[in-house]
Write a structure and sequence with these properties.
The chain has 201 residues and is an alpha+beta fold. The protein is built from 8 helices and 8 strands. The chain has 2 domains: 144 residues, Winged helix-like DNA-binding domain superfamily/Winged helix DNA-binding domain (Arc Repressor Mutant, subunit A), CATH 1.10.10; 54 residues, no CATH class.
Length: 201
């Protein structure tokens, strides 16, 4: 955030201002909900795709949105000894699990305390109370963590059907054709899912 914007906010009485990096967003998400691990890289990707305040670039892949930035930062966090990736059996399937290490927990706890009592800036201009951001992020983690790729796709398709273009705020600005195609495929996907459910009843 530019200095003049910070000065204006300070003049308004807003002094504790933070702009989390992608690394810090990942650490915070892992720390929330009792420090439960994230089950599946696709879950972490999905949470950040659905949350417009996280500054990450996404690319629409065939199955789900993907951010190479998130994968890159995760590798860096592993190298720093802040996170650990394991393979676990959850909800009837084998899934990679992303954990905070003891070192990562210490760093995340301090970060949580700092952001909880301040204001969070996102993408240079959106400012929100830290407590609200943390509550929303924790709610997303609780909702999506442990979901299979098919379940995530179904949730994404439902959200696309309901909110259309608003879902794609984290995609590049030149993705118009991709967005139109995604909306079309989402509707078809949901029709197929509903048809299969009716057959199974």
């Amino acid at each position: 955030m530019e200095d003049w914007k910070r000065d204006q906010l300070k003049n308004m009485g807003i002094k504790e201002i933070y702009e989390p990096t992608l690394e810090e967003w990942i650490l915070l998400t892992l720390y929330l909900d009792g420090k439960k691990p994230i089950y599946g890289l696709e879950v972490l990707q999905f949470i950040f795709f659905m949350y417009p305040y996280v500054n990450a670039r996404f690319t629409p892949l065939f199955f789900a949105p993907y951010s190479p930035d998130i994968e890159k930062v995760l590798v860096e966090l592993e190298q720093k000894g802040l996170v650990d990736r394991r393979t676990e059996f959850i909800n009837g399937r084998i899934s990679p699990a992303i954990y905070l290490t003891t070192k990562g927990e210490y760093r995340s706890k301090n970060l949580f305390k700092k952001l909880h009592s301040g204001w969070i800036v996102s993408k240079g201009f959106v400012i929100r109370i830290g407590t609200e951001i943390l509550q929303e992020l924790e709610a997303l983690k609780k909702t999506y963590n442990g979901k299979s790729l098919v379940e995530l796709l179904q949730l994404l398709a439902s959200k696309i059907e309901a909110e259309r273009e608003n879902v794609f705020l984290n995609l590049p600005g030149d993705s118009e054709n991709i967005i139109d195609t995604a909306i079309k495929y989402a509707r078809e996907f949901l029709k197929d899912i509903r048809r299969l459910k009716r057959k199974g009843e």
